[in-house]
From TrEMBL:
<keyword id="KW-0732">Signal</keyword>
<dbReference type="InterPro" id="IPR036873">
    <property type="entry name" value="Rhodanese-like_dom_sf"/>
</dbReference>
<dbReference type="InterPro" id="IPR001763">
    <property type="entry name" value="Rhodanese-like_dom"/>
</dbReference>
<dbReference type="Pfam" id="PF00581">
    <property type="entry name" value="Rhodanese"/>
</dbReference>
<dbReference type="GO" id="GO:0004792">
    <property type="term" value="F:thiosulfate-cyanide sulfurtransferase activity"/>
</dbReference>
<protein>
    <submittedName>
        <fullName>Rhodanese-related sulfurtransferase</fullName>
    </submittedName>
</protein>
<feature type="domain" description="Rhodanese">
    <location>
        <begin position="65"/>
        <end position="173"/>
    </location>
</feature>
<dbReference type="InterPro" id="IPR001307">
    <property type="entry name" value="Thiosulphate_STrfase_CS"/>
</dbReference>
<feature type="signal peptide">
    <location>
        <begin position="1"/>
        <end position="22"/>
    </location>
</feature>
């Protein structure tokens, strides 16, 4: 019995150490390329936008701690926000492609003045912007437009509603 267990352990170690077996259990090397691509894209967006980022766990802690902030959900209202959003978040749709100049056809007909009215007059208020997931860039647009409007404390939650749900945190729905 002991020999059998030892033989199984040796086989497991050999299988784990041989790169040719990577395809049997997923390709960790190809997975790393995907992770690297997402990480570099996010860093470049953050550098371009001049805002900060927050993890799902940190955001939950801020909410639970009663930190004063405005949380903006940049997903389409009917397709996403109404079905589930981070508690306390307010909707304001932004497009996925980079929106360098304001385009009301991409923001559900809303203007920069509408966005500024939503964010309020306190330009130092903590503004947290999110969308669906890390690859989604709606939150990047929401964050850079908050910065362009003069808000100084803008943070992007890149994991968005997917990461929020992934942590098992509660969501609110809207009608």
């Amino acid at each position: 019995m002991l020999r059998r267990v030892l033989l199984l352990c040796v086989c497991a170690v050999l299988l784990a150490a041989v790169p040719a077996t990577a395809g049997l259990f997923g390709d960790k090397f190809e997975d790393e390329v995907v992770t690297e691509t997402s990480a570099v894209k996010l860093v470049r967006e953050v550098q371009q936008g001049g805002y900060d980022v927050v993890t799902t766990e940190e955001l939950k802690g801020w909410i639970d701690g009663g930190r004063k902030m405005i949380i903006v959900d940049t997903m389409p209202f009917e397709a996403s926000y109404a079905k589930g959003h981070i508690p306390g978040a307010v909707p304001f749709e932004f497009p996925v492609p980079l929106m360098e100049t304001w385009d009301t056809t991409k923001t559900a007909g809303k203007s920069p003045a509408d966005y500024e009215a939503l964010l309020g007059s306190d330009k130092d208020m903590l503004i947290v912007v999110y969308c669906g997931f890390v690859k989604c860039t709606r939150s990047h647009n929401g964050a850079i437009w908050a910065k362009k409007l003069g808000y100084t404390n803008v943070v992007r939650h890149p994991g968005g509603i997917f990461a929020w749900k992934g942590k098992g945190y509660p969501v609110e729905t809207a009608e």
